[in-house]
Amino acid sequence: MSSSLPPAQPESRSPWRSLRHRSMRWWSVANFVSNAGTWMQLTVQNLLVLQITGSAAATGLSMSVQAAPALLMSVLGGAAVDRWPRKLTAAVSQALLAVIAFTTATLVALDRLDMTSLMVLAAVTGMIATVDNPACALLGNDLVPAEDVPSAIGVGALVFNAGRLAGAALAGVTVGFLGTAAAYFANGFSFLFVTAVIPFLRPAAGAVRHVVEKGGKGELPRNAMTVREGIAFFARRPRLLALAGVTGISAVFGRNYGLTLAVLVTGPLAGGAGAFGTVSTVLAVGGILGAVLGARLRRPSVRLVGALAATGALLQVVAGMSPSLAVLLVLVLPMAVVESVSDTAGTAVLQTDPPAHLRGRVLGVWGSVGTVWSLGGPPALGLLMELAGPRGALVTGGLIIATSIAAGHLLHTRRTTSPAVLRPEALETAA
Predict the structure, then answer these.
(1) What is the pLDDT of residues 108-136, one digit of tens each?
(2) Virtual torsion, Cα 388, 392, 398, 403, nearest 10 deg
(3) pTM of the predicted model as reported, rounded to 2 decimal places
(4) Secondary structure (3-state) at 207
């Protein structure tokens, strides 16, 4: 007797499987437009600061001012994402970012933008981003089934890189033909496009739904959405702590290839700016390939993230001993691929491990911790290069990363496999 049930379909491992869902396709298009506009504005903003002040230090300061709110406010932004409806939160934050872009564009067009107002606008942008970043990240995941979340994250990485390249290219064309203000206006319209798309997004069947808890009178329970709850969950979750440790040590002693490889290429390898441009291009290509491979993952784990990070660290050690630019280029591609796959796997763990009602706060904690790494990593690595040189920094940093991950793995294995020792009285009771 034949069964009436259809045969089970094999699980898809296509990196593009999340794009089977119509809302995810629209969300990817919206993200591309938004990323292109954002990178167009960032490129123009750096040029604008240089025009106003003539100081490279001021350019770095404007970027720090925009990033600084994440250090203290990310946990609050994450709590807001958990407390409010996700689509509404993302739409409002995108609309507010559009207002900031249009305001800046108007000031530039009227020649009223000075350094003080630019810093204030950058700081406000950074504060809004503490809510917008986790809201948009989790909204994309809410559109697809749980098994397709790694694909959604990988597609998001591809969209980010494509938007970055398009935005940087469009910045020069826009400024050249239409002026600086036009780039800010374009970014404002890109935010409005995302705002207009969000209300039409619908979760696919099997997607994890974000439910806002309510009390008896439509109010949230006082203790339901606290920042402390998110911090406590993060601190008690060994997987997340291990992920933070692996990511943190990798961020400080590796991955800053724009700094270490620039000094290596222009120093010991006697290359010029063109040679480093070639290295940067290979890094970008490797990042895109890694995002595609990462999108094929179905159940990423912290163990996989650690193994990939250790592999990348060992490649970094070998790269530090490269006798020529040609050898370095051969090593740079797998370094970038491994780093990108590791990032995709780590992001998938971070965004799916916590329960749905806590994910915004967990991302908020992660944002604060990540800001510490991004602010402290480059100075620490710069000091290491001063002491050991570019080759020594790459080799030493890679060994520190690989050794730390191996030691952590051994400690975890010993802790989970240690036999339980029963006291004599317990044995007597069991008998």
Answers:
(1) 999 898 888 988 998 899 899 999 999 99
(2) -70
(3) 0.80
(4) strand
